[in-house]
Design goal:
With 357 residues, this protein is mainly beta. It is built from three helices and 17 strands. Helix content is 6%, strand content 57%.
């Protein structure tokens, strides 16, 4: 059941004033033995509410991360990143990288799979507060649950996100980049559950100044109810136009593949299809004593968890606004509006502070 957001928005806006923190962008470098260590982090505090009946408003630490970057020399480097949000410490990035050349690097450890554009973009850069556009109290998307959005499908079906394994990547003449990963397929800090591996890869080509076209492929291994190993396959493409905090920035992607968490009438994996576009426009505020820039944001995301069944998809629309203090330190507003093909429209207002150091 839908209800008015206005009283709740007023309360959240008033409370948000207590959460805004200004911090100059910077890093700390330390010399230790044969390495140079860089220490930094991010703190994202979120207020969220939903139009779904009995779904409570919440104020919580969305991310509380510290990272340590280690550079031994031009050949050897590494990274360690831990998230303390949610009352526990979770290891996110933990890897060592061997830089044979700009064209060929080898990474071993835990990192992001080489798949879609939106997942590869850092949360410190994105102007959409939640990649999956979650709406509290909504979990109707067949297979992955939640809303049928681009990132919800790619993340929960195991095609994108962090995993443990091996990565090979590089770039040619700063115009062509590639990345290949072989991972356990079980996600963050989880040992492999079978003898199989998941594979993913993407390639990007800068076809014009500020315009990069990419393609991606993912093969995800999983166990069925009888512990037999199966594979889900997904593929897609994307376009990235412009850059961060530099006028117009447009990211568009499409992915299709096996929804292995949902079976069709024949008992095979359902086929999902999803597409998304995110547009922002950064405007510098040269005369403002408090803010460096303002950035309107708009997202349109469509997801169909089973193309063989009609009227089971949904549309996610997100208008929003970012106010930049300095660097990647900012405050943002998103209104995620989800309209399934069957059922009523629900929405979620989100306010988030972004502290980057």
């Amino acid at each position: 059941m839908q209800r008015s957001l206005l009283p709740r928005l007023a309360a959240l806006t008033l409370a948000s004033a207590m959460l805004i923190t200004t911090q100059a962008e910077g890093q700390v470098e330390i010399k230790a033995r044969d390495a140079t260590i860089t220490v930094g982090g991010r703190l994202h505090t979120q207020l969220t509410t939903s139009t779904v009946e009995d779904s409570d408003s919440d104020i919580f630490m969305r991310r509380a991360r510290l990272y340590v970057g280690v550079v031994v020399n031009d050949f050897l480097e590494g990274r360690l990143q831990t998230d303390f949000s949610g009352g526990s410490a979770d290891l996110l990035d933990a890897y060592m990288r061997l830089n044979f050349s700009d064209r060929f690097r080898v990474t071993m450890g835990q990192f992001k799979r080489a798949f879609d554009l939106f997942e590869m973009s850092s949360s410190t850069r994105l102007s959409i507060i939640e990649r999956d556009g979650r709406v509290g109290g909504v979990s109707t998307c067949e297979g992955p649950g939640g809303v049928c959005s681009f990132s919800r499908l790619t993340e929960k079906l195991g095609y994108s996100g962090r995993d443990i394994g091996l990565k090979i990547d590089g770039a040619f003449a700063e115009k062509i980049s590639y990345s290949l990963t072989a991972t356990n397929g079980t996600g963050i800090n989880v040992s492999d559950e079978n003898g199989a591996k998941s594979f993913s890869g993407r390639v990007g080509v800068e076809v014009a100044d500020g315009v990069t076209v990419g393609a991606n492929l993912g093969v995800h291994d999983y166990l069925d109810d009888t512990d037999d190993t199966h594979y889900g396959v997904a593929f897609g493409g994307d376009v990235d136009i412009g850059g961060w905090q530099d006028g117009l920035h447009l990211q568009v992607g499409v992915v299709a593949g096996d929804n292995w968490k949902s079976l069709d009438a024949a008992g095979d994996e359902a086929i999902f299809l999803t597409t998304q576009a995110v547009a922002t426009y950064y405007l510098p505020l040269t005369d403002s004593p408090r803010f460096a820039g303002i950035e309107p944001v708009a997202r349109i995301s469509w997801g169909d968890p089973d193309t063989g069944v009609g009227d089971n998809g949904g549309l996610l629309v997100t208008p929003g606004l970012m106010l930049y203090v300095v660097g990647r330190n900012k405050i943002g507003f998103n209104w995620d509006i989800y309209s399934p093909q069957t059922g009523g429209t629900e929405s979620s207002f989100k306010f988030q502070t972004f502290l980057y150091f």
